[in-house]
């Protein structure tokens, strides 16, 4: 009897498990609002919602969804008192689904969740609840007044503190703070730092777009008396900025705008505002500049200054200011936060006797220091990227940037220091004045950059290439500090537009840069001149001149981001800017030829020692300009098609034909030789389709010949390098593209790796083989432009692409280029739909291709094989395969169509 019962129980649980599995094929995971997870400060009235689906099954898709929203987490989970509920909506859309409910209120927190039905109409569980908090929703909702310190904050360069107190008599349901500043700010409530954001309010074109931040501070408040304290710093607004750094580019004032919205449990509200009741004093930060660093005197620290009950009778009254609020915008991109931490790798005494700490990684951020000493002891920390060939501390490449932090101890026990309103680019620090021996436990390097979601990984059988990939990612981290900068260490750190466009596609593989670029591109449009020209740097602190390949960021970056994320709203927002840039070129061109007054050309291309050899790598700048003229026009046409601007498609199609005809007439001989026979000239002409079809093969041959003449080395600069390997692999020269990637001698991507680089260099030979340096006035060792090869590594070596007609990886292409030069290549990319994986490897004479396709997408996979009968998937023949649709043979590939799931293809020789 007992054995029968056991069998029945076993059978029952088996059926139950099978039943559960059948009805649990799909789950909802990561939720996004306006492309961010749990965003704070959403400013659009009808935000877009996205979610990711997961399942262990193949060929799973969404057939319907149901979204619900509530102001109460408890009500949401019960499904009552909802402010929005779609009910079951038949649709496979899971990205950028627009909220269409009632009007959302400023500063309110909204909880939401979603469930979906799969292709068999089986419903998932509700997702875990997520939330978003609304921003202030327009200038009419600002009640606070701009306030300025009542003290002379330029006196001795000390930076100001501002404070106020208020009392609460009722129980608080929610409290939301909105803050911005002229300069930078850090806020405290009741002695506790508000938020984990740094370098706020970030850098924008302040006179047109000044960001504010939104914080949920409900847990900061207490019954009775409360206090607010805010410290201010110079930042980009008032501090040194630009070439020959000058102060006060945006203004000489420091100012604060603070608004706290309190919602009580009884439903009533109250606002705590920056107004005439605040008071100000000078604080312990004696000076702080982005380029130069910070000086902090702990003896001047005021204990309890941001707590209630602090005696501030000696503080000065603030000054009211009449600054605008019409230019205020919410923070749309991911804010800057603390990231990785590094312990000292080595403590060095240099030949000069300097005490130096090596953190093993060139990074951007700062060093946290712990010390115990006497009052008045002064610790000075200088920052550098490299040591010279003798092993001494090297700072010549920083130009005028001091990159020095100074801390003055108050004494009486261990003290901890780190900066507030500055950041450094460094691997090494030189320490002077430290009380006692340098102990590794007392120093910690902290990386600081925009808190972007990591999305991509690439690896292969070559460790040098793997280090290159890490270097690309570290240069992206270090230069994506609220804006895409050119270098994070010297007296520059500007948003160079040429670098940003060259790297945009690579950036979108490594991290989710949808919101990052969306925010910055709005500043591109804001700083665009009335005639449509785009400045060298954005935010623009250098003037209104522009250059081909730099100004083209206005067209290149929006289309790259649209293709990567399917974000049509971004394209709509930037379309006027795109069109204005192309029209600027059209209006300044003559006979459809663009010969700009200013051009950087193929910046920092390889220069052979003997330019009289007949193979100099200098490319005609007007030829480059004409190529980018055509490219931007084509991208504008592409955008117009997406946005259904049919008239513009017609107009610019006609223009593009004329631009290309002018190129052929001006820069090409009848036999196909170009006025510049450089790699960059042929690469741009091929990549941007500038050549008559009959001359393309000849151009490819000339390009290959040029590369061979340089002993199979590249000679390209900032504009040619991103496209070099793409052009080769697209024109039957994949093995040569791999040879360039794997080359270790100068000039090459791997040469810096052989020299110990941990980031991408500005120059191909920033450090020469003998250990000496390139010219120090332009020799950054953290400069991401040449890292654009990462795009080829992901897209071609691993083969991960989005369908050009279906952006954002809703439809995926997997088309790897395999080679015997590597044993394996693997890449993965986290899209809004889930993770795409492509991995190929050689094993016992066979090629194995493993792919993963996210739920709710489809993929066309190109399996490298000469015939269908040589391919098996999970050991099964493709003929009659129920889960793999065979499309046919295309060249050296067998093409199949897949639904979601994990697949393993084996190709026999």
From TrEMBL:
Span of the signal peptide: 1-24
MF terms in GO: alpha-L-rhamnosidase activity
Catalysed reactions, as listed in the record: Hydrolysis of terminal non-reducing alpha-L-rhamnose residues in alpha-L-rhamnosides
Domain Bacterial alpha-L-rhamnosidase N-terminal: 170-339
Pfam families xrefs: Bac_rhamnosid, Bac_rhamnosid6H, Bac_rhamnosid_C, Bac_rhamnosid_N, Ig_Rha78A_N
Enzyme class: hydrolase
InterPro entries hit by this protein: 6-hairpin_glycosidase_sf, 6hp_glycosidase-like_sf, Alpha_rhamnosid, Bac_rhamnosid6H, Bac_rhamnosid_C, Bac_rhamnosid_N, Ig-like_fold, Rhamnosid_concanavalin
UniProt domain Alpha-L-rhamnosidase concanavalin-like: residue ranges: 349-448
Domain Alpha-L-rhamnosidase six-hairpin glycosidase: 455-796
The protein, known as: alpha-L-rhamnosidase
Organism expressing this protein natively: Mangrovibacterium diazotrophicum
Lineage: Bacteria, Pseudomonadati, Bacteroidota, Bacteroidia, Marinilabiliales
């Amino acid at each position: 009897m007992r054995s029968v019962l056991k069998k029945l129980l076993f059978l029952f649980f088996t059926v139950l498990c099978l039943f559960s599995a059948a009805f649990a094929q799909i789950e909802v995971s990561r939720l996004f609002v306006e492309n961010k997870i749990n965003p704070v400060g959403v400013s659009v009235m009808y935000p877009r919602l996205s979610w990711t689906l997961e399942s262990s099954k193949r060929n799973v898709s969404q057939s319907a969804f149901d979204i619900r929203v509530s102001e109460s987490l408890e009500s949401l989970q019960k499904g009552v008192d909802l402010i929005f509920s779609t009910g079951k909506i038949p649709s496979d859309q899971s990205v950028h689904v627009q909220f269409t409910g009632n009007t959302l209120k400023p500063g309110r927190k909204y909880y939401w969740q979603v469930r979906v039905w799969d292709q068999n109409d089986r419903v998932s569980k509700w997702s875990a609840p997520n939330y978003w908090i609304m921003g202030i929703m327009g200038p009419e909702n600002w009640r606070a007044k701009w306030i300025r310190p009542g003290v002379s904050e330029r006196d001795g360069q000390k930076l100001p503190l501002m404070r106020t107190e208020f009392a609460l008599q009722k129980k608080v349901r929610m409290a939301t703070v909105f803050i911005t500043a002229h300069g930078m700010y850090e806020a405290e409530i009741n002695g506790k730092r508000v938020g984990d954001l740094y370098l706020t309010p970030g850098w924008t074109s302040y006179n047109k777009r000044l960001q504010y931040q939104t914080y949920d501070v409900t847990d900061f408040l207490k019954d009775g008396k409360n206090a607010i304290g805010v410290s201010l710093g110079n930042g980009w607004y008032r501090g040194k900025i630009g070439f020959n750094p000058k102060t006060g580019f945006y203004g000489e004032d420091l100012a604060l705008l603070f608004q706290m919205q309190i919602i009580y449990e009884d439903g009533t509200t109250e606002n705590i505002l920056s107004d005439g009741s605040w008071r100000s004093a000078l604080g312990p930060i004696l000076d702080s500049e982005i380029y130069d660093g910070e000086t902090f005197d702990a003896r001047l620290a005021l204990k309890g200054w941001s707590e209630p009950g602090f005696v501030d009778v000696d503080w000065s009254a603030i000054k009211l200011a009449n600054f605008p609020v019409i230019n205020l915008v919410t923070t749309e991109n991911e804010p800057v936060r603390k990231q990785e931490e590094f312990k000292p790798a080595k403590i060095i005494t240099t030949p000069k006797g300097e005490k130096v700490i090596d953190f093993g990684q060139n990074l951007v951020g700062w060093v946290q220091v712990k010390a115990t000493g006497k009052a008045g002891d002064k610790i000075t920390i200088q920052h550098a990227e490299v040591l010279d060939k003798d092993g001494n501390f090297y700072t010549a490449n920083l130009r005028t940037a001091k990159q020095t932090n100074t801390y003055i101890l108050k004494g009486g026990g261990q003290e901890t220091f780190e900066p507030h309103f500055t950041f450094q680019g460094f691997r090494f620090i030189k320490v002077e004045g430290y009380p006692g021996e340098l102990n590794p436990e007392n120093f910690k390097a902290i990386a600081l950059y925009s808190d972007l979601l990591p999305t991509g990984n690439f690896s292969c059988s070559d460790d040098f290439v793997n280090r290159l990939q890490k270097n690309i990612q570290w240069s992206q981290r270090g230069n994506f500090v609220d804006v895409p900068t050119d270098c994070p260490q010297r007296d520059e750190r500007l948003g160079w537009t040429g670098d940003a466009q060259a790297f945009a596609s690579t950036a979108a593989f490594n991290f989710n840069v949808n919101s990052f670029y969306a925010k910055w591109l709005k500043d591109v449009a804001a700083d665009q001149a009335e005639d449509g020209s785009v400045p060298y740097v954005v935010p623009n602190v250098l003037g209104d001149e522009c250059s081909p390949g730099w100004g083209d960021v206005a067209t290149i970056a929006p289309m790259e981001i649209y293709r990567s994320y399917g974000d049509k709203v971004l394209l709509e927002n930037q379309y006027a800017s795109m069109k204005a840039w192309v029209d600027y070129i059209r209006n300044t061109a003559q006979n459809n030829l663009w010969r700009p007054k200013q051009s950087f050309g193929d910046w920092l291309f390889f220069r052979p020692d003997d330019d009289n050899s007949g193979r100099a790598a200098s490319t005609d700048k007007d030829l480059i300009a004409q190529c980018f003229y055509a490219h931007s026009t084509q991208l504008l046409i592409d955008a117009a098609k997406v946005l259904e601007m049919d008239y513009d498609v017609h107009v610019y199609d006609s223009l593009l034909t004329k631009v290309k005809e002018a190129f052929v007439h001006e820069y090409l001989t009848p036999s196909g030789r170009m006025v510049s026979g450089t790699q960059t000239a042929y690469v741009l002409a091929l990549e941007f389709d500038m050549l008559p079809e009959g001359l393309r093969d000849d151009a490819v041959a000339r390009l290959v010949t040029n590369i061979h003449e340089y002993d199979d080395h590249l000679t390209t600069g900032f504009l040619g390098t991103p496209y070099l390997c793409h052009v080769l692999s697209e024109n039957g020269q994949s093995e040569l593209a791999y040879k360039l990637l794997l080359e270790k001698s100068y000039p090459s991507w791997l040469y810096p790796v052989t020299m110990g680089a941990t980031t991408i260099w500005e120059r191909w030979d920033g450090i020469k083989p003998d250990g000496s340096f390139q010219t120090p006035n332009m020799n950054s060792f953290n400069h991401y432009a040449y890292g654009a090869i990462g795009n080829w590594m992901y897209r071609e070596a691993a083969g991960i692409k989005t369908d050009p007609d279906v952006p954002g990886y809703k439809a995926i292409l997997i088309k790897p280029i395999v080679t015997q030069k590597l044993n394996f290549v693997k890449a993965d990319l986290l899209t809004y739909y889930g993770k795409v994986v492509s991995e190929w490897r050689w094993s016992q004479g066979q090629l194995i291709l493993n792919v993963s396709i996210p739920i709710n997408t489809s993929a066309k996979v190109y399996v490298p094989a000469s015939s269908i009968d040589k391919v098996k998937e999970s050991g099964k023949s493709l003929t009659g395969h129920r889960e793999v649709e065979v499309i046919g043979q295309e060249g050296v590939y067998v093409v199949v169509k897949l639904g979601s799931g994990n697949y393993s293809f084996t190709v026999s020789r």
